[in-house]
Amino acid sequence: MGSGEEANKPTSLYDSSSQSQPLLLKPPSIEEPNQPDQPESDPTQYLQISYNYGPRPFKDLPFVIFFVFVVLCTFGFGIFSVFHKNSNHSNLSSYKYDLNSNSCVRNSTFNGFYESRFDFYALSSSGSVFLKSLIWTLVVTLILSVPICFLLLLSLKHYTKQIVYVSLPFFVAIPIFFNVYWFVACTVSSSCSDAFPLVYRILVLVFVFLIIGIIVWIFVANWHRIELTVKIIGVASDALSKNLGLFVVIPLLTLGLVVYYAPIVVFLVFARLNGKIVPKESNGEYRCVWKQDSWVPAYYTLAILTMLWSLTIMVEAQVYVISGTVAQWYFTKEDAKPRRSIRSSLRHAFGPSSGTVCLSGLLICVVRFVRAVVDSARQEDVPGMVNLVLRCCVKALLSAVDFLNKFTINFVAITGEGYCTSARMTYELLKRNLLSAVFVETVSTRLLAGITFVLSAIYAIVVCAILKGASSMGVYSYVVAVLAWALLIIVLGFFVHVLDNVIETVYVCYAIDRDRGEVYRTEVHEVYSQLPISRNHRPPIAPIAPVV
User: Residue 372 and residue 378: Cα distance in Å, rounded?
Assistant: First the structure.
């Protein structure tokens, strides 16, 4: 990027030769006489924010060291559980209490093999048609999901408006169809109508219609955002189509997480085999039971927390790779193509920024755990003013952490700074440029989720119709169609997850462009400049003019 940076220099928004009003005034020229003692928020220290192509120092290193220590403990105790297992666990039923020795002894005449044998032949013979149809349907669905994702991406890139407006009626029509269909089918079926009385069927029917009405109200209330959301999705789809390698790297990272989980699951299985068979008195009678070693519950806790932390780390690492790759595309000249952008993002995510990724994953894991505890306590409906105040305080704290974490990993992937520095710089960056730290166009996520639901539902209806006509599965064809729908919506949900991260990354890159007074991507500025300014900060300068 040495000599090419001068040639790739973007259009400046501070060009003094321009006769029109500039898009942004230089931050140093903004006078703040009432705030003389704020050296840390001095705007001049952020003027050179851009993608860091140079070598990056290691940040937040203690957290990656702590994570490695936790993983080593999990694997170490897991290996110990494998070699320390008690093979008598599977023969618990063959032990009986001996009055002479006051212990459990094995009954040598007992043979439980034939009694505990599972008749797999009976299962395979009775459900062979169902299993064969299910396996083939899921395999075909998984294969077809790849071209479906690419066709959806190309359609959103070139025909975003048409796709969105055609899908909107189906957001209501498909739920109405399923709601009426199940009501009629249950009414016609004698077994269903007997098990589910008419009054309850009507209540469920009305309840589903109320939910559909709420969905309609949400889209009507946000109708003024639809046009801008369509443009944002189109810009993000274009950015994602220029980095198709992400569709290979992100699934491979997920597969790597599954491979990493496999030995931990094995360790958990072997951990429960660590213990001994002891007698237990119950109602004056002794019987032999399995007693786990005292360290087994603690290991279960450690292993499960390690898996949860690893999951959030992988999610943040994927966000990091997506953000770093898209940012390199953004800050490259339009007729050029960044080289090895995905490789460099992977190297940074699992290298200099690995500690920051571990810290962000730890915060998300803690927030999710605390939120689950709070929700569980709320369901128990514990009375008392103190409990109510504590719940409110915890929710406020969790909201503050979510606010802090918003866009932080995106900024880390661009600059290579530490977590705390990136969180502060992101907030200051968005605040100076009158942009909200909470992305205003969350409608894009709902629209994309609705589109995936529509496509998956249409696919499930086609699968069900084919199974009804080509096989005699009966009611099991609905089960296969629902599972095919679930598999396809999971794959399309992965696509939406990637596209959402692209939208947020482009948003941060646009904010950096505004801050520097430059334009790397004209089409991005034409769309994102239409976003409303933050309600928390009134502009100290004249209103921002749209990019020409």
Answer: 10
Tokens of 357: 């990724």
- Say how many CA atoms lie within 13 Å of 416 toward its Cβ: 18
Amino acid at 412: V
The pLDDT confidence band at residue 311, using thresholds 50, 70 and 90, is very high
What are phi and psi for residue 290, nearest 5 degrees?
-95, 130
Which two three-digit tokens encode residue 170? 């189906």
CA 29 to chain CA mean position, Å: 42
Give 174's contacts (C-beta < 8 A, 6+ positions apart): 453, 454, 457, 458
CB 390 within 8 A of CB 377: no
Q: How confident is the model at residue 261 (pLDDT cuts 50, 70, 90)?
A: very high
Q: Where is pLDDT greater, at 454 or 221?
A: 454
d(CA 535, CA 546): 19
Residue 322 has pLDDT above 50, yes or no: yes
Q: What confidence score (pLDDT) does residue 19 get? A: 37
Residue 484's CB: how many other CB atoms inside 10 A? 24
* ∠ Cα 433 434 437 (to 5°): 100
Structure tokens, 303 = 């292993």
Asked if residue 82 lies in contact with residue 270, where contact means CB atoms within 8 angstroms, the answer is: yes
Q: Summarize pLDDT for 14-71 with one digit per residue, the tens.
A: 443 433 333 333 444 444 444 444 444 444 444 467 788 888 889 889 999 999 999 9
Q: What are phi and psi of 104, to 5 degrees?
A: -95, 130
Backbone angles phi, psi at 127, to 5 degrees: -115, 25
Nearest to residue 286, comparing CAs of 108, 155, 157, 103? 103
Which of 388, 433, 500 minimizes the C-alpha distance to 156?
A: 500
CA distances (Å), 249 to each of 346, 470, 528, in order? 9, 38, 28
Mean of all residue pLDDT scores within the chain: 78
Separation between Cα atoms, residue 383 and residue 461, nearest integer Å: 47
Most confident of 92-96, 101-105, 183-187, 386-390: 183-187
Rounded CA-CA distance 523/518 in Å is: 13
Q: CA-CA distances (angstroms) from residue 483 to 465, 480, 496?
A: 14, 5, 20
pLDDT of residue 407: 83
- 201-229 burial, b at 16+ Cβ within 10 Å, e below that, comes to beeeeeebeeebeeeeeebeeeeebbebb
3 state SS for 251-276? HHHHHHHHHHHHHHHHHHHHHCCCEE
Q: Where are the alpha helices (DSSP H) in 87-189?
A: 113-116, 120-126, 128-158, 160-188
Distance CA 427, CA 437 (A): 7
Chain centroid to CA 17: 47
List CB contacts of 78: < 8 A, sequence separation 6 or more. Answer: 263, 264, 266, 267, 268, 270, 271, 299, 303
Closest CA to 278 of 86, 111, 112: 86
pLDDT over 80 (residue 319): yes
Q: pTM to 2 decimals?
A: 0.78
